[in-house]
Every structure is written in structure tokens, then in C-alpha cells.
Specification:
It contains three helices and 32 strands. The strands form seven sheets. Strands 1, 3, 4, 8, 13, 14, 15 and 17 form an eight-stranded antiparallel beta sheet that branches. Strands 2-7-16-9-10-11-12 form a seven-stranded antiparallel beta sheet, with no helix packed on it. Strands 20, 21, 23, 24 and 25 form a five-stranded antiparallel beta sheet that branches. The protein is elongated, with a radius of gyration of 30 Å.
């Protein structure tokens, strides 16, 4: 009976560990993922690519420890050991990754770290590192890493360290008390490298020399001469965008108070000669205002109003567009955060038909001249199929104005007409 109970216990623990790994994998970007180490009680590569890591310490091993959520045995603690005979050595983890992908690939390295006070006084400490090994030359750069020596520095170089490639402006007075998310991207195609800290872009630097990090005779190490904790290591063979980096930062709901506001239930309804909009916001902690934007083609948007954010919780807002255009109207929200960051809602559309003063264009198609059939016209614009204004005409309460379009290239255009009462309508025509 005891053996059966013991077996059940191990099965439950194993199943729980598997669920944690699966849950973490469900939250991270998959495209281009080379390896992912969630450290869920083991060193397994959860990407499915088989790059399982192993302990590689000489005098000590990295030990399982609590992660940033306070979960036991879900991160690893590293410690540098100083030996009189051999010098500095210590715990590190060996990742059998010798090829990121191609000769000169793009790459992203994501890692969570909590450094100890021991690190602050030392020269350099590798959270993640690969040396050049036998590939070392003065022109081939296969070494790279993420270091900490008071601040975070990322590099690609001819050997194990090329200081100052892209360093953070970030300084933490008590780094041993705080977990931080570090992401290093190498954008070979555009010649730049970037450092993100805690989900935000901290610094970008130009690549001033060839960066060939594709393959090496040396593997990738974690915690090389490092004192502190590491967790959730992800390696990609492409450059992740800011949205994907934010997703990595918020894995497991970390720092949910800095999540951007979420817009739900954005609705539109016609109300006589107006359009009423309504929406709800969720997680409004850092939001300052909502800017309502309008478009007649779903491509080019203009601001038509702004609402101050309440600033906390979930809230309901309404706005009325008193000058909708004749035809399809597109609306979206631009959400402004306290730090200036902008996010956008999905666009919604509504069909609106003006009950009076219907406008039309004749002849349509046309080769040279068009007549805007309508009255009380104050101004009109001709907009091409790319959303660019190619012609502007000012009128004074005009009726059936005539416009030359002979200089326009063949294609589909929109005449955007504004009447003296402020109403705006769009009428499509074809230029032959």
C-alpha cells in the first residue's frame, strides 16, 4: 500500500510539473524558438527541439530555488567559487546549442535574473554566454552574451566579451532584492542590436562590424561566473517584436499592473444624423486618455475626439460622432499610457446614409471633368486608393461644382466633400 501511495505521489508531482511547462509554453511566442528552459524542477528544453541542458559546475552545481512568484524549485541559484589553485570557477549550466541558425542569423535571447550583492563588486558576470572556441579570429564574431556588472550589457565579439556593445541605462540600487527580465536582440538584417529591460526598450546600438553568430564549436552556458538566480530562458533565431517581448515579460501574470489597457465591446449605432460609440476598458491603471479616430476607407485615420481615462479598474465610455460620412465609417481607439506608449483597439465599422442632400459624381467613369452633384458644398478633397490626398478645392456654399481630374492617373478615387453645416461625405469615382 505504501508503494502504491508513493507511486501516486510521484505521478501527481510529475503531472503537475508537466502542466506548468505546458502552461508556460502556451504563453510564449513559438515561431523561431530554438530552446526554452522554464526550469520547472528540471533542465528540460520545453521547445521540443531536444536541447536539454546539463549541470557543468566544477566545484559546485546550480541549485533549485524559488522563482519570482515564490514557487519552490522553479528556478536555479548560481554561485561563483574562488579556489586558490584554480582561481574562480563555479556552478554553470551547459546548453548543447552550437548553431543558432544559418551563417549570420538574427537572434533573440530572453532571460529572467535576480543578481546577488556579490555581483556588484565584480568585473563581469555572464547570465548567458558563448565563447568563440576554435572559431576565434579577428574578423569572425561568434561569441555573444548577457553580462551584469552594476548594469546589464549585451555583446557580440571575437572572443568571450566585447564590452559596451549595447549597455543599459538601468541602475538598480538593490539588485539582490528584485527580479528583472532581460532581452537581447541581434538584428543582422538592419544592422542593430537592442536591449530590453522589464518589457521596455532600454537601448539600441548599431552593429559596427560583421556579426556571424550562427555556429561555433562551443555551446551556450548559463550562469558563467554568475552569482544569483536565473529562470525562464528562451532563445530564438529571429528578432522578436515589442509585443512578443511584452508577452515574455508578463508570463504567468507577472507585473500585471503594467499591462496595457484592454478594450472590449467597442460598438457603433446610428442615431439620426449621428453615430454613437460605446466601449469598455479593462486594466486601466496606467491609461491617461482614449483618442477616438475615424476613417472613411479603413486605412487613413484622423482624430475626432478624446476622452479622459478614469484611471482605474473597468469602465464604460460613450462618444458621439456628429459628422459621420455618407457610406462606411470606420472607428478605432488610440489608448495613451502614462509613459507615452500607444496601443490601438480593433477597428469597427458602421454604414451611414445621409437622408438629405445626397451627393453623386457625374460622369462616372470620367476622363477629364467631374461634377459633384450636391448643394451647400464648402470644400472637397480627391483621395487616391492609397489614402493620399491628391487634390484640394475650396468652395463657398457651392452647388454642383465642376472639377478637372485630367491630371490624375487611371484608377479609383474618392471625392471627400464637406458641406457648410460640417457634414462630410465620400463619393467614389473612376478615372479612365
Amino acid at each position: 500500500m505504501r508503494k502504491i501511495k508513493k507511486m501516486k505521489k510521484y505521478l501527481i508531482l510529475g503531472f503537475t510539473t508537466m502542466l506548468v511547462s505546458v502552461f508556460a509554453m502556451a504563453q510564449i511566442p513559438k515561431n523561431g524558438l530554438v530552446a526554452y528552459y522554464p526550469f520547472s524542477g528540471n533542465l528540460i528544453d520545453s521547445s521540443g527541439n531536444g536541447y536539454n541542458a546539463i549541470q557543468d559546475g566544477v566545484y559546485s552545481f546550480a541549485l533549485k530555488t524559488t522563482d519570482r512568484f515564490g514557487n519552490a524549485n522553479k528556478a536555479y541559484q548560481f554561485k561563483t567559487v574562488y579556489n586558490k589553485k584554480t582561481g574562480a570557477t563555479g556552478s554553470k549550466i551547459f546548453c548543447p546549442i552550437y548553431n543558432i541558425g544559418g551563417v549570420n542569423p538574427d537572434a533573440t535571447f530572453s532571460i529572467w535574473a535576480q543578481v546577488t550583492s556579490d555581483n556588484v563588486s565584480k568585473s563581469s558576470h555572464s547570465l548567458l554566454r558563448r565563447t568563440a572556441g576554435s572559431n576565434y579570429t579577428t574578423t569572425t564574431y561568434t561569441a555573444f552574451g548577457i553580462e551584469f556588472a552594476g548594469n546589464y550589457t549585451c555583446y557580440v565579439g571575437p572572443q568571450w566579451f566585447r564590452p559596451g556593445d549595447v549597455s543599459s541605462y538601468f541602475q538598480d540600487a538593490t539588485p539582490q532584492s528584485n527580479w528583472h527580465h532581460i532581452v537581447y536582440t541581434i538584428d543582422s538584417a538592419n544592422g542593430k542590436e537592442s536591449l530590453y529591460l522589464d518589457g521596455r526598450l532600454d537601448n539600441t546600438s548599431s552593429l559596427s562590424f560583421p556579426k556571424s553568430i550562427g555556429s561555433s564549436s562551443d555551446p551556450i552556458y548559463l550562469g558563467y561566473f554568475f552569482d544569483g538566480k536565473l529562470d525562464d530562458v528562451a532563445i530564438y533565431n529571429r528578432v522578436l517584436d515589442s509585443t512578443e517581448i511584452q508577452a515574455l515579460y508578463h508570463i504567468g501574470g507577472w507585473d500585471s499592473q503594467s499591462l496595457p489597457v484592454k478594450i472590449i465591446n467597442l460598438t457603433t449605432n446610428t442615431n439620426g444624423n449621428k453615430v454613437d460609440l460605446g466601449f469598455e476598458s479593462v486594466n486601466e491603471i496606467n491609461t491617461t486618455q482614449f483618442i477616438i479616430q475615424h476613417s472613411s476607407d479603413g486605412i487613413s485615420y484622423t482624430d475626432i475626439g478624446a476622452l479622459q481615462a478614469i484611471g482605474t479598474g473597468t469602465n464604460r465610455y460613450t462618444f458621439t460622432d456628429i459628422h459621420p460620412t455618407n457610406g462606411t465609417n470606420y472607428y478605432r481607439l488610440q489608448c495613451v499610457e502614462k509613459d507615452g506608449a500607444l496601443t490601438y483597439s480593433k477597428a469597427v465599422s458602421v454604414q451611414f446614409t445621409v437622408s438629405s442632400n445626397q451627393l453623386s459624381v457625374s460622369p462616372n467613369p470620367t476622363k477629364s471633368m467631374i461634377t459633384i452633384n450636391g448643394s451647400h458644398i464648402a470644400s472637397l478633397q480627391v483621395i487616391n486608393n492609397l489614402g493620399r490626398v491628391v487634390k484640394v478645392i475650396s468652395c463657398k456654399d457651392a452647388k454642383n461644382p465642376v472639377l478637372s481630374v485630367s491630371g490624375l492617373t487611371t484608377g479609383i478615387y474618392h471625392a471627400r466633400v464637406q458641406t457648410t453645416d460640417g457634414r462630410v461625405d465620400n463619393v467614389a469615382f473612376i478615372k479612365e
